[in-house]
Write a structure and sequence with these properties.
By secondary structure, this protein is mainly beta. The chain has 1 helix and 10 strands. Strands 4-3-2-10-9-7-6-5 form an 8-stranded antiparallel β-sheet, with helices on one face. A two-stranded parallel sheet has the order 1-8.
Length: 187
């Protein structure tokens, strides 16, 4: 009897500080991250405690192209049970970038000890209204199932074809538009 690895499902959210190579509206690269911690997790990340320290070891360029490509370890952390979690960033897109907001999204490979490497996506958002948020979601098959022959990371079973990222980008544009509207009409 052979056993197949289980694909990664769910997601994990982070908060922390970052440094850019210029102002938020003109930046093309992250030069560092600090104080990044897990805020919540679902699926394969559900047991990770809030406050777990996260390492973002590699500075990288996001515009005009991803450099280095791939970013071998965009982020990594070890949970309370000693299990290593990490993400390799292979592509990136800018959803919004202006003087108030930077919103990015990218695809890559999620890795957790004991699981099959799984395709996933990473989101980054910073705006003047709150803390910096980083999110990751894996695109694996249903929890407890093996990927079998459905494709890399069980991609054939994923119903979301990117609409979540499109909705995030649209909502960020709406927030920016409202901010501009209220800033130009003082009370």
């Amino acid at each position: 009897m052979t056993s197949q690895a289980i694909t990664i499902t769910g997601g994990v959210a982070f908060e922390g500080m970052f440094e850019l190579n210029d102002t938020i509206g003109a930046a093309t690269a992250f030069t560092g991250f600090s104080g990044v911690t897990v805020t919540s997790g679902t699926g394969a990340y559900a047991g990770v405690a809030a406050g777990t320290a996260v390492s973002y070891p590699t500075p990288f360029q996001f515009s005009p192209t991803l450099v280095p490509s791939p970013v071998d370890t965009l982020w990594s952390f070890t949970d309370g049970g000693g299990t290593m979690h990490e993400f390799e960033l292979t592509s990136i897109s800018i959803f919004t970038q202006n003087n108030f907001t930077l919103a990015l999204g990218g695809m890559g490979i999620a890795k957790i000890d004991g699981f099959e490497d799984t395709i996933g996506y990473w989101n980054f958002m910073n705006n003047a209204f709150g803390p910096t948020q980083f999110e990751f979601n894996a695109m694996g098959s249903a929890e407890g199932e093996s990927a079998g022959d459905e494709g890399v990371g069980g991609m054939a079973k994923v119903p979301d074809g990117g609409s979540t990222l499109v909705l995030l980008g649209c909502s960020l544009l709406g927030v920016v538009s409202l901010r501009r509207k209220f800033a130009s009409h003082p009370a």
